[in-house]
Structure formats: C-alpha cells, structure tokens
Amino acid sequence: MLTLDRLSLRFDHQPVLDRVSLTLDEGRIGCLIGPSGCGKTSLLRLIAGFLAPDGGRVLLDGEPVAEAHRQTPPEQRRVGMVFQDIALFPHLNVTDNIAFGLHRQPPAARRARVAELLARVGLPGLGDRYPHQLSGGQQQRVALARALAPRPRLLLLDEPFSALDAELREQISREVRQILLREGITALFVTHDQNEAFALADQVGVMHGGELRQWDTPYRVYHQPADRTVADFIGGGVLMPGRVRDVDRVDTALGELRGPLPPGLAPGAEVDVLVRPDDLVIDDAGPRRARVVECLFRGARMLYTLELDNGQRLPCLASSHHAHAEGTGVAVRLDLEHLVVFAQSSRLTSR
Ligand SMILES: Nc1ncnc2c1ncn2[C@@H]1O[C@H](COP(=O)(O)OP(=O)(O)OP(=O)(O)O)[C@@H](O)[C@H]1O
C-alpha cells in the first residue's frame, strides 16, 4: 500500500532523511519512533505531500506520488493526517467538524457517515457540542473521526496522543487501534513513546539521525535489534562487556552465555551483550550475587538496579510482591531468550 524507496531530504543542505525505505501493507499499522529531531515528522510530511523529496520516491498502491521532479498535490493523494495539536474548527460543532471533508457527498450520505463515525469513536449523541465543550480525549476522537470521514487510503498520525495524560493515552491508543482495524485503514504513526508503539503497531520503525535503522515487528525490534543504536534506544537495557570464548559462547560477569554470535567474531574478541530488565531474574538458587542499589515501584512490578561484584550495574524487572530493599543482597540468574551481541569496535552511537 505504502512504499518508500530510498527517500532523502535536505534542509539548507543539511541531510534530514537519508535513503529511507519501507513498505506497509494494506490495513496494517506502522509506527515510527526515535529521538527528537531524527526526521519522523519530516517523513510524514513527505508522504502527505507537504514536502518534496531530494531523492527517492513515495508510492501509494504502487503508483508514484512523489519522485525527483514530479509531485502529486497533497489533496489528490487521499492521505489523511491527525496532528498532535488537535486543531478542530472551534466555530463548527462536532458534526460539522467531522463532515468537513465530505462536502461533495449528498446530505443524507454525509449524515449517515457522521453518525457511523460518532458511534465508532464512542461519541454518539455529542454531534451538537462545540470543541470547547469536549475533553482532550473526546477532541482527539473527533479529530480522528474527521480524518477518517473521507475514507483516506492512508492515515498519518503525528504524536496524536501526546497532549493526553499517560493513563488516557494508553486507553485511547488501544481504542484507536481497534477503530483503525475495523475501518480497514492503513496507518502510520509517529510517537515518542515506545510502549505506545508496541501496543499500536504491526510494524515498528526505529529512526536515528535521518536513517531508518530497523523496520520490523515489535517483537523483533525488541528482541533482535538490528544494531547497537536500536538496542540502546529500545527497552531500557544495558550493554554488558563480554569476551568470545567460542563460535557460540561468551564469557560475562554473569557466567557463560550461549547462542549464535554475529559472524567474524574470533575467540578472545571483546563484545557487548544486551541485558534487558526482563532478562535478569532474582532467584535464590541463582548462580551470581548482586546488591540492590535502587528500586523503583512500578505497581505490579519493581524496577531494580542491581550491582554485580565487579561493579557492573544491570536493570531487573521483578514482581513487587517480594520487595528487596536497597542495600540488600540477592541471587540472580540470566534468562535470555535471544543472545544479542555486538562487537565492541562498533562503538555506540550517541542518542
Ligand atoms: N523547515 C525546516 N527548516 C530547516 N530545518 C528543519 C525544518 N523542519 C525540520 N528541520 C530539521 O530537520 C530535522 C528533523 O526534524 P523533524 O521535525 O522531522 O524531527 P522529529 O523526529 O519529528 O522530531 P520531534 O520528535 O522533536 O518532533 C531537525 O534537525 C530539524 O531541526
């Protein structure tokens, strides 16, 4: 449905996007994450047609809508957008806001579509209200309904929930996923929030410095990060030093770890092993001792920072039922599903 083919963009001769390629199938939801300034919004603006690329192409349903010297105007792309600042028309009521893009349709069809969307976004009966009479979450649902009304083939959403508080954000992002799936809409989100991306998306894209470093399922982005930058950005893990012992073995402060290693690592090579908070288990029968240096209560879970005898600090997410106080000792074992190893020579790119 959506194909980006080596899309590049410069602002004032500075590269902002560098040969970004991805495909998003019809009816799927994609989500771009990455640090501030990495080019996420610029990428959405290129797809919508508000910016023209300096290189590469944007294709919708296989048809080029942006390439070096040919641009389809935004209004002909059938691409909808929902922005962070909700921007409903303040002088129009909810019904007229939603009906805004339907002016070419007969009044009866317009009314039916508005009623259908009001029900779909969970706001039946609020059609006569004005934007200032709605909560932030309700306004965002109206903005979504307005963008969906003309049945765009692709919906782009730029941090649509960032103005909402954390609890509401989670609830509304779940609802929005259901609404998009029911409408069969292909959508591409931008968000700062990894949890939101994982909850919403079929495909997650991790951007850094104008490059798309990985475009993959949420599971693979989390468990099989493509490079150190992705590993460092996602999931609150740390990179722990190790030394290759054999083709499938690494010695670390947590003992010998086994699993496939990247090619080209000879025995004796210095490596970094990714340890995420859910990889480390507090277990009385565990082979290593650690000291609790910090504990953060997270409701059902506790996020510990543990320190091994050699000073290595590691995050550990554990049930909060059996709390371990700061300063106490615990026994730990590593429960890695996938061994993720990077050669130490490939230095960590800064965030
Ligand atoms: N109109 C512009 N002129 C010049 N530079 C720009 C312009 N718009 C954006 N930039 C630069 O392009 C880069 C990418 O910006 P963009 O807004 O796409 O990033 P982002 O990943 O969406 O950031 P954020 O998460 O903070 O919204 C930034 O370095 C920004 O300063």
From TrEMBL:
Alphabetical list of SUPFAM superfamilies matching this protein: MOP-like, P-loop containing nucleoside triphosphate hydrolases
A Pfam match: ABC_tran
Example GO molecular function: ATP hydrolysis activity
GO biological process terms, semicolon-separated: quaternary ammonium group transport
GO terms for cellular component: ATP-binding cassette (ABC) transporter complex
Keywords noted in UniProt: ATP-binding, Nucleotide-binding, Transport
Every ABC transporter domain range: 2-234
Protein name: ABC transporter ATP-binding protein
Organism, as annotated: Alloalcanivorax marinus
